[in-house]
Specification:
Blueprint lengths: L1 H5 L6 E3 L2 H6 L5 E3 L14 H18 L6
Parallel strand pairs: 1-2
């Protein structure tokens, strides 16, 4: 994400392993659900999975509006 940001493109990093993202210097880190499925657990019903994914993606999109210092 740092290299993408350096080229002028805002980037959000969705991950379930926040400390590693911080180690690599990611600026906009969105906490994901789990390592194999960061957006939502696939074993839930379709509507709950959709809502969980939508919530995470919306957080990521909103983070793109934040100014990085």
């Amino acid at each position: 994400t740092k290299e993408i940001e350096r080229s002028g493109i805002p980037c959000a990093h969705i991950t379930a392993i926040d400390p590693i993202a911080h180690t690599f210097g990611s600026n906009r880190i969105i906490h994901g659900d789990a390592i194999p499925h960061p957006l939502a657990p696939p074993d839930t019903d379709r509507k709950a999975e959709y809502e969980a994914r939508k919530t995470t993606v919306m957080k990521a999109l909103h983070s793109l509006l934040e100014e990085i210092r």
